[in-house]
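Researcher: Please predict.
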Amino acid sequence: MKISLASAMGTCFGVQDAINLAMSPEFNNELTIVGQLVHNPQVSQSLKQNGVSLVPGIEDINKIKTKKVMITAHGAAEKTKKQLHDAGFIVYDASCPLVMRVHQTIKSLVAKGYFPVVIGQKDHVEVKGIVGDLDDYLVINCEEDFTKIKASKNRNLGIVTQTTQQRDKVEALVAKIRTLDYVDDVAFVNTICQPTHDRQLAVHELADQVDLMIVIGGYNSSNTKKLLHVCKEKGVEAHHIESFDQLNDDWFINKKHVGITAGTSTPENVINEVHIQILKIAKEIEGQTSLAS
């Protein structure tokens, strides 16, 4: 059994910078993260073990016991940061620069007279941050959402994307929006981040070579889910796991080539643990095959 790693996978610079900042010894058990720093359970566990407190979101501000708080890598609206400042907290911002570029881009489009539209998941923390300072906006995720555009009666649209979207999907949606008879003008800025695109491209290429793909990342990680979706679009069997102990030996029976990829919030040590476990499974299967013959 051959095992191949995707050419691009695992933590991106924005995630790694956020983790490094939160793990800094300067906080000395006096830091609370407002939300999930990055969408990875092992990272959350490591933070807790390092003395970092976590609250689900700004709505839990009354549960914060430390003076110092941190905005997650997914970003937050300026009004959220102001709310924390006004409550007397010292605010540290771990927002990914590429997410903040989306915030700046959509505000620029609004300043130019365009109605703001975000292609993404309306309940995702990143999207909530992007639209949090806007008076009015739309979030769309599929063609069925075009009814929102028609109902809004806004004919000049300024469109950005959640950073973890799939490029093909976004470009197809924007192309169709441009053809709508109730839309006059579309200003589109592709704000999918490069690390996300690199990982999607790498898994797309690897999926052509394998008959099984293991996708590693948090179950609530948007970009990890997109990697799984790419595999399924290619017709390749794929399994999404968070850790090595979720691997099932039966998945690997009669497989000749296994691929491994991971989302942008997945640490290297988690990937290594999965890789090592797959090597063990492969060795066991090969041993059983030799005995049977």
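Model: The chain has a mean pLDDT of 95.
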